[in-house]
Amino acid sequence: MLVGKPFLTVEQIRSRVKELADRISMDYKGNEIIAVGILKGAFMFFADIVKLIQVPINVDFLVASSYIKTRTTGEVIIHADIRENIKDKHVLLFEDIVDTGVTLKYIKDTLLVRNPASLKICAFLDKKTHRQVELEPDYVGFAIPDKYVVGYGLDYDNKYRNLPYIAVFKEDSSL
Ligand code: 5GP
After folding, report:
1. CA 58 to ligand 1 centroid distance, Å
2. Ligand 1 lining (C-beta closer than 6 Å)
3. Which mutation among 97, 159, 171 tests ligand 1's pocket best, with the greatest number of atoms within 8 A of CB?
4. Residue 32 placed within a domain
């Protein structure tokens, strides 16, 4: 058994995602957002939260990776860039999890040179213990301890993304 019982349940996730969406709707009232889902990990979170945000949204995606199995490679690769022109637009990035912060810092710096009116980050999970760069998400679903988690879009070796909850993953069988 590699995946433990739910660490964040479907119900906890549902209610927190609604809270985040309400907060974002309030903060961006009167504005349009370019909402960028960072794939693959954020696909489930992104699909859930955009349904609940009450301001006009222009949806886009960016595909990036820096992890092999459970370790960051430190090198960020953008496999597919956004298609929207973000100059003078309000951009909100949706990420599954911030760990070292390297991935999002790279993506943020890459997009900032295109001169958006604003660029903020909404991370479903935040693991602060390994942060290597200065990066603070503007919206966070849950701050979690230093554990490797899967489910709700997050993977181990591209598996477990379809679990509807978050579980702790271990490479041994001692759960
Ligand atoms: P960072 O660059 O902040 O170290 O890592 C960000 C990326 O690493 C995330 O988008 C995610 O793909 C992956 N990652 C970091 N921690 C975890 C984790 O606990 N579980 C999974 N499945 N992926 C993680």
Report:
1. 25
2. 41, 66-67, 72, 95-103, 148-150, 154-156
3. 97
4. yes
* Model confidence pLDDT, tens digit, residues 88-137: 999 999 999 999 999 999 999 999 999 999 999 999 999 999 898 999 99
Q: How far is the CA of 98 from the centre of ligand 1 (A)?
A: 6
The reply to whether 99 belongs to the active site is yes
Full DSSP string of 65-116? EEEETTEEEEEEEEEE---S--TTSEEEEEEEEESSSHHHHHHHHHHHTT--
Q: Ligand 1 center to residue 11 CA distance, Å?
A: 23
Q: Is residue 163 part of a domain?
A: yes
Integer Cα distance of 61 and 40 in angstroms: 9
Q: What range does the domain containing 15 cover?
A: 2-170
- For residue 175, being part of any structural domain is answered with no
- Give the chain's domain count: 1
User: pTM higher than 0.70 for the full model?
Assistant: yes
Does any domain span residue 11? yes
CATH number of the domain at 14, please: 3.40.50.2020
